[in-house]
Amino acid sequence: MAQPERSPVANYVNPVSLEGRGFVVLGAGQGIGRQTSHALAQAGARLFCVDRDLDLAGAIAEEVRGVACVADVSVRADVERVFAEASDRFGDTLRGLVDIVGIADIRAIPDTEDATWDRNFDLNVRHAFLAIQMGARAMTKGGAMVFVSSISGTHSIANETSYGAAKAALNHLVRGAAHELGPHQIRVNAVTPGFVRTPRLLAALSEEFWGGLKSYIPLGRAADPSDVAKTILFLASDMSAYVTGAVMPVDGGLSVVAPVPHIPFAPGMQTRVGARS
Are 50 and 28 spatial neighbours (Cβ–Cβ below 8 Å)? Predict the structure, then answer.
């Protein structure tokens, strides 16, 4: 007869706490960045809120009682300054980086100029490399890095080839960084949202478009920024203490659906298609 197991049971609630940990949030001012800042702050993190826009950086810092910082994170000197200032403030309690910065410059391949290609890679990959490099030097006691990628980096979407190539490169960067920084107890992960109702996309796309998405997404709706922020909080906290190198979909199931037309099977046809005889 088997003996009852008596090994210790883990605490499954407290690991979400980020109490006493400093986090740098790049692109903190609006949309996913703003919701993520609130999620981290509610979990107890102290925040260094970075944005290109002074007003946005100041507003979110005030909301979460963080520190506002204005920087262009595609510029090495600015990223160096961000982490130098964050290190001065947090010291060895600097334990996290969340990077929401990105832009989708969407054009068909024949219309994609060198400047468009470079812009996609500068603002989706190069800045992330700089953040990983400087963050790894500053996070002397380990911690977690989380990057916002896109479904465009894992699936082909019309007219998003250069943007998707940049996000695919970001996904590989995350996996490579997870490999290299694991021995330093720094975890590196990414989320890949589909369509998110951010202020920028709401201004760019019609309500008719958003309504039409329901038929493509198994969960029947586009994401709210808070949906992505919750997953980022999971990856930033000790709830995911053994997760690194993950590129995690947060798309309501959109990426698992094959975009094929409805197949008008006759009644009973499905059974006959699979028959052996």
Answer: yes
pTM value? 0.92
Which of the following CATH numbers is that of domain 18-253: 3.40.50.720, 3.50.50.60, 3.90.230.10, 2.40.30.260? Answer: 3.40.50.720
Amino acid, res. 145: M
What's the pLDDT score for residue 273? Answer: 44
Report the C-alpha gap between 172 and 178 in whole angstroms: 10
- Assign 260 a pLDDT band (cuts: 50, 70, 90): low
Q: Is 242 a catalytic residue?
A: no
Q: How far apart (Å, rounded) are the C-alpha atoms in residues 266 and 100? A: 48
How many other β-carbons are positioned within 10 Å of the β-carbon of residue 64?
20
Q: Identify the active-site residue in 12, 163, 216, 242.
A: 163
Q: Which two tokens stand for residue 17?
A: 């706490």
First to last CA, the chain: 48
pLDDT value of position 133:
98
Domain boundaries, the chain: 18-253
- Hey, which bits of 17-124 come out as E strands? 22-26, 46-51, 67-70, 94-99
Tokens 């500053």 belong to 138
